[in-house]
Fold these 3 entries.
Entry 1:
Amino acid sequence: MNASSEVSRIAQRAALATPDKVKRNLRGLSERTITWVFIAPTILLLLALNIFPLIWTIYLSFTNFKANRASRGTDWVGLDNYRSVLSDGDIWQSMQVTAHFVIWSIGIEVLLGFALALLIDKRFRGHSLWTTVILLPMMLSPAVVGTFWTFLFQPQTGLFNYMAAFVSGLDASSFQMIGDVPLAPWAIVLVDAWMWTPYVMLICLAGLRSIPASLYEAAEVDRASPWRQFWTVTLPLVLPFLMLAVLFRAIENFKMFDMVNLLTSGGPGSTTEVVSITLKREAFEKWRTGYSSALAIILFVTVFGAANIYVKALNAVKNR
Amino acid sequence: MSAPTVAHSVVEPTRWTKRIAGTIVVCYALLSMVPLLWIVLTGFKTPTDSIAYPPKIAFEPSLEGYVNVFTTRSRQTPEYIATLPPAGSWYDELVRSRNMVIAGPSKFAQRYVNSLVIGFGSTALAVLLGVLAAYAFSRFRVPLRDDLLFFILSTRMMPPIAVAIPIYLMYRQLGLSDTWLGMILLYTAVNVSLAVWLLKGFIDEIPREYEEAAMVDGYTRFQAFWKVVLPQASTGIAATAIFCLIFAWNEYAFAVLLTSGEAQTAPPFIPIIIGEGGQDWPAVAAGTTLFLIPIVVFTVLLRRHLLRGITFGALRR
């Protein structure tokens, strides 16, 4: 004990006598060194596993390379791949399927999620427990969700058919959610809405809770009807949060692969073939590497543009 | 954004409003739980009961699904089975009652172990890299800080299939395809963006004065980080780790494209569990149940931080 206090007294005296510059070096690494030592591993990893592959994809998209025949020579084909992607009717078909999926699933999620958030914000007894229960589906693996919904959608014997028949009075074997051409696009919308309504709900709830009570008090003083309060206070203040949720879901659903691949794998025919499934088929089944690289780049540019807006929106919401 | 949850004093909902709101929300919650509960129930059915019509709610519980998910079986004649020594265990007996014998363990246990190893490995790595980078972004003047942060986030937005082609080619060259290390590195790269953004939010909330006080007391910057900031950020680190773990646990696209045997995780495996004459639904349901249990536990643990996690730290409660 004595010895250590003696040591620290000496250290203190030494510290007082040391010039500032030496002191800074003695205190360990300089801040700038620490900054780079701390950030570099993350950046390097992302360069190796994201940027390098991306650049490679860009290169491949200008060639006629085929990954299953790598030994065959590779020719530079210029913009040919992009030209054939953009003039391919199947690609536009799958873009339409994707648009249908994105628009309807998000529409339903916004309506249901916002409604649920409004109800939960009434703070009935046990609301936090039930909120946790409602949130569960969005935490699950989309692949596993796709798998067990195929079971619920089984023709004739599935629980979904049974319940739908019970409610609607139709015959349970008269329709197949994932086998009938008109129904399959709605099956993927339904499962996505089941899974992601909680997401929109949670973000809307945060929006509702950020509204200061004083605004409602002021509205109350002005004798605004609840209807009017909703349109002039609640909705405008929740809107940025809602936009954030919509944008994020749009990005995620635009690149949706796992759930749809396991639920319908694009079928029947190509009625639910969203664009990521087309991409997988071109790249890993038909092995048209150059062509699929061009498609991948087109997708990436789209998502990247949306991500740019997303980050701006994030910051706007954050700085409010 | 950490708005205090103020009670709407003037506009406290009436008791009836609360009751009606509560009823609707509970109905939705119960309805949305039906698919999950159904899959858990199906895990305890026999294959015949699992596809009965009308769907059976009352049935004789059986562990056949769980036995089937862990074993491979072969069909034998009753005469052959009669010649075997008596069944050594309840599961032998169960399988023999279906005129089959257990041929060996299935790959499910191995896939589950792969999921655990790759999940925990990539989580540990992502959180380690993330906490270092987040600290630097939070405390130091980093040139082009906002651009770097945006770059880190934007990598998360890439469609996995779009980068899967070159990663597939690259991994084949490096001998990383279908290995634990390859998948751990890949999932780390995906998760590190989330880790940086989330942890930066948590570290921003720790007052700088704590470290400055520690450094006045003679700690180096690194010691202050290690002994002052990290313990303060432990809740945030735990929440971030769980988010990374859930992502790695749930990931399917990379797993199905880049792994086939050795390092395949559970999500690509569960959908292809088949029995005689098609999908063995009780076994799929049993596998699904075992796979989902950790997620349910984590969701309950995480419930306070969910909002942060799904918005990359932009929204807090």
Note: Residues 161 and 167 of chain A are 10 Å apart (CA to CA).
Entry 2:
Amino acid sequence: MTLLSIRNLSVQYHNANESIPALKGVGFEMQAGEKLAVVGESGSGKSTLALTIGNLLPAQASVDGSIDWPGLDGIPKNGRDVGFIFQDPGGSLDPLAHVGTQIAAVAQYHLHLTRWQAREQAQLLLANVGLDPQSGFFDAYPHQLSGGQRQRVAIACAIAARPKLLIADEATSALDTLIQADILLLIAKLVADTDLALLFITHDLALASEMGDRMAVFQSGKLVEIGSIAAVVGNPGTPYVKRLIASHIGLLSPPLVTSA
Amino acid sequence: MTGIVLSVAGLCKTFTRGSGLVAAADNVSFCVKSGETLALCGPSGSGKSTIARLVMRLLDPDSGRIVLGGQDLTALRGEALRRQRSRFQMVFQDSTAALNPRATVYDAVAAPLRIHNIGRRTDRACNVGKLLEQVGLSADLSARAIHEISGGQRQRVAIARALASKPDLVVLDESLSAIDPSLRLDVLRLFLDLQQRRSIAFLFISHDVALVRAFAHKVAFIEHGKIVEQGRAVDVIDQPQSALARAMIAAVPRLKEL
Amino acid sequence: MILNLVRTPEGFVGTILLGLLTVWALVAPWAYPGDPLSIAGPALLPPWTDWSLPLGTDRLGRNIAAGLMYGARTSMIVGLAAAGTAILLGLLVGVAAGFIGGVVDETLMRITDAFQTVPGFLLALAFVSVVGPSLPVVVLAIALGTWPPPARIARAEVLSLRERDFVAAARSIGMRPVEIAFREVLPNALPPVLALSSVIVAAAILIEAALSFLGLGDPNRVTWGGMISEGRTVLRTAPWLSIFPGIALVTAVLGVYLTGEGVVEAHARREMLL
């Protein structure tokens, strides 16, 4: 079943002097429960895409084209139908509230639970994201947690209302390799356990190929190529994607130096 | 310069953090030869950035020696240390934070030339232009302000500045993580070209193991301030012995194509 | 930048007011050549009766319009000079304290505390009473009372800037500490201090007016405060002696405040769009 259908989407940012196009004529579909990885470099528009789908664009942006949600009844509500994970692990958390309370607030508001039910739900979620509520994580403040732990809390908040789509916008770029691997495993597990669809935004080609069933490549605001991982990586159609793959440095790439 | 450029012996540094002491460097010893790249690889909090700053003498070690081309840097202070700084430079991770936002590109790149009296004043503009071209930027960028140019251009300006005083050693502190993947190869090739022509030694701080394998000759894996494994980069990464190296290598995302 | 300033409502009004005052001050020697303190006509002439003396005359027959224009010069000179001195002094102390740290920081901050605990006006008053009234003394006196806030703000900015990577980078290329303080840190610490400048200019103009009102201003110059003071005794019969300089004072202070607000607003708008 199609969850999301985007047609001819164009987004521009306006300021006093000029209008800057961020997305130009983008169109694609997402199925329910699908994992779509969006790859692009700086200026490609991938973050703008995430913000547009998540209904988080600033006031100075104008949107043309259509975003339809055939998989939902009515317009999607932030938090309830779409969950968002940002790049900065602590940035989306209230520094003055316990993390458990913040997760519970999401559940209480969107699922119409009582305070006590929401608390229980929050504790379950904390356990689900790997933060044992018995170890005192419920009453911790964001600044008492490490970057990786904060991102886990952010993930818990994002899925608390049981959304249909989870948008991860460079969710692991600010974390080091080991912690990144843990968070990615967590996201993959959460998506697999439920019928959650995942829109995974990254600049890392290898990461995209690991996290998605399909990959969409963006360049300068345009969608240049979209298809299954095997198709895009194994048989790239556009010169840009070919270049991206050729310049990728992996563990199997030949070393650039000859060491004695 | 040939032979060993940087020799670090028994470097120790502890910080008091919250309730206890944290060892950022615990008896660290390594050396880098001219024309060679040594990578320090480790997770965040391992102490690799602290070691970079100790080597750059931005921090004072609790104990240990840092010797650059025969000169004991740990024994130097004040003006004597400042005069030696032309021989070792650093490229920071975030060029937006590492350059004075109000300065012009010219100010930033000419500063080391001015401070260490390199070249004639009349030639300075010309020299700055040459340095910019060396890193793939146009000489016309000199007049622009730092906050006006793009992130990728800023990182190249930072690199041009680090190379201005023709140092023997350059410390790269996660310097490539802010650069787009498609441009990374260009910057790497630039570094390698300079390394071959001028025999510059690089101390490369990174948590990106794939990048380290491609770019470094030798690697040292660091955990809690201690070196847990070191050796030839390709050997260590293809056949890791320590738990940390194994974990970091397993965590590298792989491009699934087959 | 000026264009952005004028686009904001506050900046627009403020610039017009200040512009008028500046023109007013500059035009004075041509409009009314000669000494404004000389007698120009009959005493206590009401305004708008004689067109060569449009705003009337005071108790000694001096031209009020001339007094306003020359008074504008004094107020603006004092306002700008005192604010400039205060900010310069504050910057030096704040940057030194924040950058050097340690004992120097503590000592400078205790001195700043000492100056700040005495109300600015009383400090100026005491200083002028002791040293004697003249324009440079008045400027210095006002600066003495208004330099602590810029010093504190400069110090706070320097403390946070000191930890930034570009200061470490400057050290790593071999810059001397003095050069780092003045080339790298000070220009970046400047904006919040300059944001205070309009408040200090306004305060300086008011303190100067108050000092002149009490007879402690420069006796050889016409000042609005002095004119208001002159009009005290005849307030019921010839109120225009005090009202006109009063309006001029309000206009000047309002103009400065509004321009300052306009600058902040223009800056904020520009930042938002970046």
Note: Residues 45 and 151 of chain A are 23 Å apart (CA to CA).
Entry 3:
Amino acid sequence: MPAFDASYRPGDNLYTNSAIAFDAATGKIRWYHQYTPNDNRDYDETGSHVLIDAKVNGEDRRILFHPGRNGFAYTFDRINGQFLKAVQTVKQVNWTKGIDAKTGKPLDYDPGRDIQVYAAAANSVEDRVARQVCPNIAGGTNYWPSSYSRRTGLLYVPLHEGCSQITTDTSAHVIGRITGGITGDGGRVTGGLIAIDPADAGVKKRIDLPYPNSAGALTTAGGIVVTAMIDGTILAYDDQTLDELWRINVGSGFNAAPITYAVNGKQYIAIASGLCCDGRGAPLPRNSRGRVARTPELRMQGNATVVWVFGL
Amino acid sequence: MAMSKNRRARMLAAFGALLAGALPARAADTTYERLVNPEPQNWLMNHRDYTAQRYSALDAINRTNARNLKLMFAVALGGTSNNESLEATPLVEDGYMYMVDSWGVVSRIDVRSGASGPIVWQMNPKLEKQDRNRGVALWNNLVISVTGYEGRVIATDKETGKVVWDKNLLDQADLELTAAPLALKDAILIGGSGGDRGLRNWVAALDPKTGDIVWKTYSIPAAGEPGSETWKNPNSWQTGGGAFYVTGSYDPATNLTYWGSGNAVPAFDATYRPGDNLYTSSAIAFDAATGKIRWYHQYTPNDNRDYDETGSHIIIDTKVNSEDRRILAHAGRNGFEYAFDRINGQFLKAVQTVQQVNWTKGIDPKTGKPIEYDPTKDLQLYAEPASTVQDKVARRICPDIAGGTNFWPPSYSRRTSMLYVPTHEGCGQVTPDATAHVKGKFFGGAIGDGGRVTGGLIALDPGSGEIKKRVDLPYPNSAGALSTAGGIVVTALIDGTVLAYDDETLDELWRINVGSGFNAPPMTYAVNGKQYIAIASGLCCAGPGAAPPRNTRGRVNRTPELRQQGNATVVWVFGL
């Protein structure tokens, strides 16, 4: 922080936007990988880091998988932190030309610079300059978790597709309000769901969704992938074809993850509705309700904090 | 270049035709003819039709398949502030649902797909304070809604969501408008309430085109008017109450409209208002053209138990003692169900509905008055000791002050000829306080914890007054009932359970629990030949300071295992 003003904090700013392996006994950092050094687009990488045992180049590897807010998905050797692969997940990325296949850093990363410009114009770090950032500041993917299916060997990543507008403000650096700028209406954000093979980082399937998917994904041995959208729709897909198997709309948006459980031999799927947050004073809140505000046909949508349980 | 008049007219006509073709068809007007004879797939007014029977001719969901009911979609309303509630019956006309919430916000919801209910427009009257809101009315191209404490009635164009007129009827402080309006041929009837805070309530007829008042008849006569002799304290009538918070019924054959009136106020202290206190706790037949009272029947004269009788008065044609009669049936808050000849008001029958009644030994089969009623007395004791009217003496009253039955409407099935009455079973505790007569806090006492209240559903023959079936329910039933040609009765409980019963056996066919309580009635509609059942959740009201509140959330408080229950204002739509 400040998120949108990198000029306040020259340098790579370790260990922000990083995968960090802590020793659970001592809290010591054993290894890390910083995804976006000196970020000024709010691309934090706090989303889940998924443990998967898979073959990479024909070798059994213990990998760590992370789909990023910055628009890429990464795999690492989870023992030593060695970067393995990265792949672009969202359709639109304008901040970098890609990820270096060797280092795992953005291709345009320059360790000799205090302020990283990446693939954007030089004025992208200047005060009061509005810039369009893709993916949207929320990502890519974010706190909504992906799911790895042990049945298909694929990772299902729920996405936001779209862009944001940011205007840097170097005076917005007071504690409690240290965003370093403001966000504008970057236009409509839609959603997507992709199936990635973590072994070769190949995107095997992709479907487009009309609304942002802030719910995350669930996979099961039953061969289904469950996800949900901010318009209150819950969706179940075939895990091989990503064909839609079922949907219901409950009229209150989702930004919580689906789960499944069984009691007395009967299986249930549960998911909680209720969008975050009523940004007091924020004309376009940086959250799910903000994205509703940017989706005209959902602006009147109500909100109910309910746990929904489905079954057969 | 000047265009010839004819050519210009032809071009305009062609342009008009193009527009008509390009735009979606305008919603059909809700004409009086349609209100009198509503299409089976639609639910055009609060009680479905003028009889207030809440019976639907739809039968696709029936006794055989109701067990397969499941959630088709839901529509969340509000959800941006605390303490919201839904008490309205959603209306559905030609694939669009009209619903109002506790902020008086009216939503037009597109339910044509059967898969979701996107909100097409919302009319927000921007109220400062929430209140109960029991529904809207449709009249021609208008949606008519009320606004609780602000006393405004608003007509909104149902196509565009634009306000056409907005009239303020607030003639006294503390007036409330919570009943769904009743649309007639050339009048919108509005019931005024809020009487418990010490005012004089009324029914008013408005001109639907302008909102101007055509007539207004008070439930409490002014000094010198007929009935004023029943207010023997000359200061008491101005604060006498007599609320109307449930929509009346209407008989096009006689142009009479039937409304139940609320209790006399102060509710718990009858000593402040010696006399019968007409026309409180009464059935009232108004001439819809003039507002004149054609007949009335007072259920509980000089009541001091909050037994108002504003619940629905149902028009039924049935046999009484093997004679065809045009009757009016009312399930009372005081624990009894009554039938009258609806033309002349002649009392026919009464039957005890709830299991526990302690205030009277019964209703006189000739007069329809409580057996102990003594017209020569200023204060009625009924079956209770003299202390029952004394200051600061706690007393236990059964049924509970909420009833019996109350704003949650019964349903009359034209299939079984039975009246299905949702009841509360239990008692209340009341302590009169002769000093609690200040404006805005005019209850004349306080209520205590009268213990757990449960629920029931009874099927009774309104012609004979005979109870044919009874089921006990673990929680109060504040939702009301729906009956259909499919042979099902639908109701719901304050614990969030929706229930469907066989209308003959009252065997349970289906249930679901949604975790948020119900105090709004179920309804049914069809779109594209597919039948749905809709009901709104969200309990009223978190009364600040009122402990325990005199409402549905208060009854949750008195039910230990429900105290942590959440609240969601959602319209739930079920189907097969």
Note: Confidence is low (pLDDT under 50) at residues 279-284 of chain A.
